[in-house]
Design a protein that fits this description.
Structural class: mainly alpha
Distance between the termini: 27 Å
CATH topology of the largest domain: Growth Hormone, Chain: A
Order of helices and strands: HHHHHHHHHHHHHHH
Shape: globular
Number of helices: 15
Strand content: under 5%
Length: about 400
């Protein structure tokens, strides 16, 4: 494939990834409020908020196989249109039950988008530059987080909920139109039954196991971070929305800045090294956040968490994909997304339970211990620096 075509494909994948991810992030700050406005009680709100993740996690793994059987482009296009319709259905919901059904549909559609885009990015990246490729992929997702969080509140405050849903649906349709121009760099039409034994050998090998453990550790801590840190800042330290916003912006900006340098390190020295740095940084940040008091100290600890996030995502995705053969990359990346979602889904409520009888600081600090699990797997990969055994063996 000519270099110009490859670059054009990369740009399309990154744009489709960003547009296909903004919707879920934009809904995070307002979905509980919207459910409440439809008459949902507290329990129903919790169920509605959690339904997306409950459906999305297994859907990623199940639908990742479709990217191996029918190519990457078709599931991506279906997923973007499915998400566009699902988000539009939010505007038609008039009861908590109807909103819950829309959330289920949204979680299913998103299970097609993530594995397809990540697999496409892995296909496009040359072996010696896969770390950089996955870093660019991570940057597109990080931008979607920043944009999604930033637009939802102002749109709802000025125009209401429905215009936000229409806007997000339109963005997904634009993502679909961009994806139509994609040319798949790898022709995969794997219609044989999934070779579970071969897949199991690959997943147990040092590098993929380290990648999965790293992303789970990171997103377990991120779940605790999102659930507990804002409450700790406001209710324990007395800071307002400005300081909370500043601290979270610091985390997001540092993560964005460091994605690509982490990808370069992954290509030059192997992805285990930046994964190790990232896990240590995030674990240390969660351990020391409760000790920070002044705004300077808080911003520095948030920056440390951002450093860790910026290093772990590209390195863990590289660990998972760089030795996977094309006809099973969809399954491998689908499992990556499933574990990522599971990390947040488990980390947030678990650490909230830990914090409930004592204080927020205990839950934040306790979450740092999950970093040890990630470190153990990364240390194993460092001791076995050769690339993981190919699934073709």
């Amino acid at each position: 494939m000519p270099r110009s075509v490859g670059r054009g494909n990369t740009a399309r994948v990154l744009a489709a990834t960003m547009l296909g991810t903004i919707d879920t992030n934009a809904l995070v700050p307002i979905i509980a409020l919207y459910a409440s406005s439809l008459g949902a009680d507290l329990v129903q709100v919790g169920i509605i908020v959690g339904l997306y993740s409950a459906v999305h996690a297994p859907a990623n793994f199940a639908f990742g196989r479709l990217a191996d059987r029918y190519g990457r482009k078709l599931p991506l296009g279906i997923g973007l249109l499915w998400d566009a319709l699902s988000v539009f259905l939010y505007s038609l919901a008039s009861t908590p039950l109807m909103l819950a059904l829309a959330r289920v549909s949204h979680g299913l559609g998103g299970g097609l988008v993530g594995p397809s885009t990540m697999t496409l990015m892995a296909d496009l990246a040359t072996p010696g530059r896969r770390g950089r490729g996955m870093a660019l992929y991570g940057i597109s997702i990080a931008l979607a987080v920043v944009i999604g969080f930033g637009i939802s509140g102002p749109i709802v405050n000025r125009l209401g909920y429905d215009p936000l849903f229409y806007f997000l649906s339109a963005g997904l349709v634009i993502g679909f139109l961009i994806a139509l121009g994609l040319r798949e760099p790898v022709r995969v039409r794997e219609r044989r039954r999934l070779d579970w034994r071969r897949l199991g050998r690959y997943l147990r090998s040092a590098e993929p196991a380290a990648g999965y453990a790293s992303i789970f550790s990171l997103y377990f801590m991120l779940g605790a971070f999102v659930a507990l840190v804002p409450l700790w800042l406001e209710e324990t330290l007395g800071y307002g929305a400005l300081e909370v916003g500043l601290s979270f912006t610091t985390f997001a900006v540092l993560s964005l800045i460091l994605h690509y340098p982490a990808g370069i390190l992954a290509d030059r020295f192997g992805p285990s090294a930046p994964a190790l740095i990232g896990i240590v940084a995030t674990g240390a940040a969660m351990a020391v956040i409760p000790a920070a008091r002044g705004i300077t100290g808080i911003v520095l600890t948030m920056a440390l968490f951002g450093v860790g996030h910026g290093f772990v995502f590209p390195s863990s995705s590289t660990l998972v994909t760089r030795s996977a053969v094309p006809d099973q990359r969809g399954v491998v990346t689908g499992l990556f997304y499933s574990i990522l979602v599971a990390g947040v889904a488990i980390g947030a409520p678990t650490m909230a339970i830990v914090a409930a009888p004592a204080n927020y600081a205990l839950g934040i600090w306790a979450s740092s211990w999950i970093a040890l699990a990630g470190l153990a797997f990364v240390a194993r990969a460092l001791r076995a620096p050769a690339a993981a055994a190919s699934m073709a063996s």
